[in-house]
Write a structure and sequence with these properties.
alpha/beta, VC0802-like, Rossmann fold, 14 strands
Length: about 375
């Protein structure tokens, strides 16, 4: 099967490295993700273990179509039966660019007809946002560009950043996939202390604990591939059992978080409990200056406020300068990795940074920089 691991733009290199660790040898990095070949076992393993992919797609068919007749005729040859059980529902998310077929709703109706989906019109939801709810229907992502139609079947269901633990959120929540990418880019060794002194709802802390304990991010959720006709429960259950056996009893190093906001601290603690890592993280209400920074080597990994995302109007220069002073006071023992949306604020730390990747967070362009 031809597979496509989708991710946030800018995280392609991080995802490529992750897929290599998961046993994918040959893969092609493109904008918005990574293309590679694999089988159903790879589909299951990547959905279970990927910390940075947003979803995994299977390429179902690709063909030329400049008319609705041609579209329906060629689409009938696709292997729909591999992904939709008899009587099952389907959804089509269609985008059309620079093509004679430009009406996405009409394209979706023709594809549903070609797939033999019962009650096709009522089963279609077109151009849904990436936060759509998985209602049990198989999602097909369809792109028509320059009269070439590419049909892909979603294997994941809800987006993979939905681990199932984050019900409580603070202001400006960080996606779990981006938090995992930040940790990967930080170079954290998993045993030295990791500190997030502006932890918000605790996403960086929780992702760090999941990584340190080798807990698969998808261990507690369901996936779209489990509804496919060819899905076999026993091999999947064996994969889950094998994954559970590899989980460490506890994180090897301290994972410490704090925030000055009572609501954020409460949300972080609740999320850590739901994720099953409450005993691995230390979360308290503290100001930046009084946060716990253990002696010896350590990492500060954080997503500081940008001054725009949560409507802040006051100058943040003192906050950033204070963070830089904390790192400099520890000499070469502490490293820092943070998302930065403003180079002028970043310069207040007076540290030598190198850029790891560029992406967006909540629609804001950001860079991961590390010292």
């Amino acid at each position: 099967m031809k597979l496509f691991g989708a991710c946030a733009p800018g995280l392609e290199t991080v995802l490529l490295s992750e897929l290599r660790r998961l046993g994918i040898g040959r893969a092609l990095r493109i904008v918005g993700g990574v293309e590679f070949s694999g089988d159903l076992e790879d589909v299951q393993r990547i959905n279970l273990w990927s910390r940075t992919a947003s979803r995994l797609l299977v390429r179902v068919s690709e063909f030329h179509a400049s008319s609705f007749h041609e579209l329906e005729r060629r689409a009938k040859k696709a292997a729909w039966e591999r992904f939709i059980a008899p009587g099952g529902a389907a959804r089509f998310r269609v985008t059309c660019r620079k093509s004679k077929l430009y009406h996405s709703d009409a394209v979706a109706v023709r594809l549903a007809r070609a797939a033999g989906v019962a009650q096709a019109e009522s089963a279609i939801a077109v151009d849904e946002p990436d936060e759509e709810v998985d209602d049990g229907g198989q999602l097909f992502v369809v792109r028509i560009a320059n009269d070439i139609c590419t049909i892909s079947a979603d294997t994941s269901g809800q987006l993979l950043h939905r681990r199932g633990y984050r019900l409580a959120v603070a202001k400006a929540p960080l996606r779990e996939t981006l938090a995992a990418a930040i940790i990967a880019g930080s170079g954290w060794d998993r045993s030295s202390p990791l500190v997030d002194p502006m932890c918000g709802s605790g996403t960086i802390l929780i992702e760090a604990a999941l990584i340190a304990r080798n807990i698969p991010p998808g261990i507690a959720r369901a996936f779209a591939f489990q509804r496919w006709p060819e899905f076999e429960r026993k091999p999947w259950e064996r994969m889950l059992d094998d994954a559970r056996e590899k989980i460490h009893a506890r994180a090897p190093g301290r994972i410490i978080g704090s925030d000055r906001d009572d609501g954020a601290v409460k949300a972080a603690i609740e999320n850590a409990h739901r994720a099953g890592v409450a005993s691995d993280v230390e979360i308290t209400r503290r100001a930046l200056s009084s946060a716990d920074y253990p002696t010896g080597e350590g990492w500060i990994v954080t997503n500081p406020p940008y001054g725009t995302r949560v409507g802040q109007s006051r100058d943040l220069r003192n906050l950033y300068a204070q963070l830089g002073q904390i790192v400099r006071n520890r000499g070469t023992e502490y490293r820092i990795a943070m998302l930065s949306a403003d180079k002028s604020l970043e310069s207040e730390l007076r540290l030598d940074f190198r850029e790891i990747f560029r992406t967006t967070n909540g629609g804001i362009p950001v860079r991961l920089v590390v010292s």
